[in-house]
Specification:
The structure is a homotetramer. The first copy, chain A, has helices at residues 3-6, 36-52, 56-61, 136-144; strands at 14-20, 64-65, 68-75, 84-92, 98-107, 112-125, 130-131. Chain A is of the alpha+beta class.
Chain lengths: 148, 148, 148, 148
């Protein structure tokens, strides 16, 4: 049996979100302040959540919180005020009770890759205790979206 | 000759900064929003810069910008509104034309480690072109502080 | 001659901008944090600037800055995470060398008025000195848009 | 009976808070972005709350929220990165069920007044309904502090 046939085949879940750089996101070097990218990632995560039904509200309605435990940014080229950027977010399937996303940000006018990164979320129950198993609603969500 | 005697001995440059968690830094989970840690790291970097003479103004006065090209955060325990935290920042000596810091954030009341991370800055000249060599002022700064 | 016929008739310059409430804009009361409205007003101002050709870049290209000197907010009803809101911005014609806007924010789902406010900007020259007369480019802009 | 003797004599409740302008608070005009002042007012309000026992937690523990319904800023002189500023906050006694503060921000190095403003908070109960009477804990707080 070939190796390929043993590999788990997941669907690729992704979403894309366009943002316009705000004046307030630019620093005194006249480029987008690195902290603004936290918001760009969040915008992408919310767009993904809306598309696939996995939002903060989904977590909450099922009795969980899903705070970030890890985030990483690499900045390759600066964005400036007035630039339009496109954030591509992709779900990373893992067996652990985690929600992991990869991000790529492109400048729209020339499709230049300006930043990449990733975030990891874990589950806390309503008393803020870490949940080590996959919550049932999340396993269900993974099954439905073919990323189990 | 022993290996130890060949090792470069750098001074350890570090600073510590206390912050009080603001109401606006807390999200609807009632814990500090992950994006707020970008500000905490920045606060620590500014305190370090003041202590050792390596601030945004230092870069600028020497004809350079020093934007972040990489930042990484790991969140271990949540902070809540009203908590006092202590950010410890340490300079990481490298030969490349980079400014690298490690960070550790502790909750003051019980000294619990709540977050760690690091940032990397590079040098751009006044026309925003990447500078691959160590700027003279920076080499001088490293020599003076015994981290060359 | 009637009073009405003596009144200056200006065009009404307005723009409308839709925003989606971000998770990070919500505070631990689970409503949008008051400071987030500063961004909403800014979003509206940028949309207006794009439509009518009066942006930070316009000011800058003509040798001026136009910082805010006054801003006022009234909050009538809370917005929550996931709400869509519509910001309506209207230019307020005045003879003084000022740029004044009125704002109204509505919750889209039921058209409820959630906040109002206004901002005033003045002109500084490139050396940050207050400019008391109307810059030529601005007078020209007012004439062209029939708000002189 | 003279007019003066009829006037209510309140104690003046005030607090002062020093802040250091962060790099991220400065915009591409190299001056503090107007939105940053929302944080400065909040810092002052929290310092006041700590001193006099009237914080978000106080409201919450008594079953109330106290969101802002009005905020106003006047900017007189710009602050720049590295400036130290002093925010003076003063409680404004009123009979209505409101918490009103006046603010003055000074640049420390020359005591120049850079901004003024005020905020008004109202009380909501735990179901977010407006409370028109003074909550008992607040009346008690006013009595204790001689501002009733």
């Amino acid at each position: 049996m070939s190796k390929a046939s043993l590999m788990i085949k997941h669907d690729v879940l992704k979403e894309s979100k366009q943002i316009l750089v705000r004046f307030s996101e630019v620093d005194s070097m006249s480029i987008v302040w690195h902290g603004s990218y936290v918001l760009y990632f969040e915008d992408a995560r919310e767009a993904f959540g809306k598309k696939y039904g996995l939002t903060y509200q989904t977590y909450f309605d099922n009795g969980f919180y899903a705070p970030l435990v890890d985030m990483h940014f690499e900045f390759k080229h600066p964005l400036v005020h007035g630039d339009t950027a496109r954030i591509e977010i992709e779900y990373v399937p893992v067996q652990a009770a985690k929600v992991i996303f990869n991000y790529k940000i492109y400048r729209e006018k020339d499709n230049m890759l300006v930043a990449t990164g990733n975030t990891t979320q874990v589950f806390l129950d309503s008393r803020y205790r870490l949940v080590l198993y996959n919550p049932e609603f999340y396993t269900e969500w993974k099954r439905k979206n073919n990323v189990l």
